[in-house]
Write a structure and sequence with these properties.
5 helices; Methane Monooxygenase Hydroxylase, Chain G, domain 1; mainly alpha; 0% strand; 116 residues
Length: 116
């Protein structure tokens, strides 16, 4: 197993990564974690683990990041982030036994109501 870079070397490497890539990476992690908690992982639908309380937190954080970052990213980078967020918001609504009212779902105070 290769050695990890020294902390100062790792910081230098991170300093060289463009902001759009950092935002994209963090967004991808939030989306993946939220999707799994909404039950969108592998396996049969009845066997997939869901944790909607955790999914709500992750989607709220994602909505905050996307809402704040989109104006600075340009359409090419922003469109997939918005689409992914909306897809997760809809998945959350579908997975919930008692869906939130329109505008009250995770992240909807930042993005506006989400419906099919």
């Amino acid at each position: 197993m290769p050695d990890s870079p020294a902390p100062t070397e790792a910081l230098r490497e991170l300093a060289d990564v463009p902001a759009v890539e950092v935002v994209g990476t963090v967004t991808l992690h939030l989306m993946s974690a939220a999707a799994l908690r909404c039950g969108l992982g592998e396996g049969e639908p009845g066997e997939r683990a869901t944790d909607l309380a955790e999914a709500r937190i992750l989607i709220e954080a994602l909505a905050g990041l996307v809402t704040a970052a989109v104006p600075h990213l340009g359409h090419h980078h922003a469109a997939p982030l918005r689409d992914g967020l909306r897809t997760l918001q809809l998945a959350f609504r579908e997975a919930s036994p008692y869906p939130d009212r329109a505008g009250e779902g995770p992240g909807e105070r930042l993005t506006g109501p989400v419906s099919t």
